[in-house]
From TrEMBL:
GO molecular function: DNA binding
TM segment ranges: none
Domain of life: Bacteria
HTH cro/C1-type domain location: 53-107
Protein name as annotated: XRE family transcriptional regulator
One Pfam family linked to the record: HTH_31
Length: 327
């Protein structure tokens, strides 16, 4: 697995170069961004509909074949619907919900599911400066926007949500990409919009475990790194943010060889949260939602948290590193 620096952080810029100019500057982008993020994204609406449908089907005791027969759909189609890969037309969904309700009265909240489904096929979110995101990364951005909890492990660079503007620009330079001024601004705007999730209304709880190398690796200059680490420390003081450093000499460093994100999205009713793990290689990203996969990464996360410095010691560690860069 390659680091996010190789794929996510740089690929945004490569996409920006292909799409060209779409916006003017970044000076006024923050206004209104936090409020916009309070609206559920179409992708997550579709995932939640599938998650709820699977829960209700399992409560009724039906398998995918049985459920498909209720509305004239195949096992494969029903599987795609429950995984959020496709959506049923509203009238077909209503028919399915009515059939489920007959089998298990009181288990289903039809209005909740139908309301989620109405916005699940909206388009246009990825136009303008947002078009810089690779298609495989867009679902991660949506999950990030709608999650109630985010857990991220990062190996080699400071995560995108914690980067300062000058650090972001230096990353673009380090990648040695020839970009127009507008392409750079589009990529920067997209990154800054993601960061607004940390301070929006009903902001998620966001926890980071960062390898020591991610704050030691010089991006741009030593002065820039000192400023970046001070920026990191200020974000770590937010009530909903926790940052821990995994030092080089950690006594029990787990076998975490690649970056990963664990997203937890609240679900209506008693279906339990929607959970996804996002991992990637050099050219693609994978979304894992099988219980066994999520459980394995949850255990790995717990091991990383246990091996890392606690938040208070991590804050001191970051401050010392910033002072060293400033000398």
């Amino acid at each position: 697995m390659q680091s996010h620096f190789t794929v996510i952080e740089v690929d945004v810029v490569m996409q920006a170069n292909r799409h060209g100019a779409t916006r003017k500057g970044v000076s006024s982008k923050i206004k209104g961004r936090c409020d916009a993020l309070d609206m559920p994204t179409p992708t997550v609406r579709r995932l939640l509909v599938g998650h709820l449908l699977r829960h209700v089907r399992e409560e009724t005791g039906l398998d995918l074949d049985d459920a498909g027969k209720l509305i004239g759909k195949t096992n494969s189609t029903m599987s795609r619907v429950e995984r959020g890969h496709t959506a049923l037309p509203q009238h077909v969904l209503q028919k399915l919900l009515a059939a489920y309700e007959e089998s298990a009265p009181g288990v289903i909240d039809r209005d909740e599911i139908l309301d989620l489904a109405r916005g699940s096929q909206d388009r246009g979110r990825w136009s303008g400066y947002r078009s810089v995101y690779s298609k495989y990364f867009r679902m991660a951005v949506d999950l990030e926007a709608d999650a109630s909890a985010i857990f991220q492990y990062q190996n080699e660079i400071v995560p995108g949500l914690l980067q300062s503007e000058e650090y972001i620009r230096a990353l673009f330079t380090t990648a040695q990409l020839q970009l127009s001024d507008q392409s750079t601004e589009d990529a920067l705007e997209a990154r800054l919009e993601r960061q607004a999730v940390l301070t929006k209304r009903n902001a998620p709880h966001v926890s980071f475990v960062l390898s020591e190398s991610s704050i030691r690796r010089v991006i741009g200059s030593r002065e820039l790194m000192a400023n970046q680490l001070r920026h990191l420390a200020s974000i770590a003081r937010l009530r909903n943010v926790q940052v821990q450093i995994l030092p080089f000499d950690a006594a029990t460093a787990p076998r975490a060889t690649h970056d990963f994100n664990l997203f937890r999205v609240p679900s209506p009713g008693n279906a339990g949260p929607l959970e996804f793990v996002y991992v990637e290689d050099f050219t693609d990203g994978r979304y894992l939602d099988r219980h066994d996969d999520v459980h394995a990464y949850t255990l790995l996360w717990q091991q990383l948290v246990a091996a890392a410095l606690d938040p208070v010691e991590s804050e001191k560690f970051i401050a010392r590193a910033a002072d060293e860069f400033a000398r």
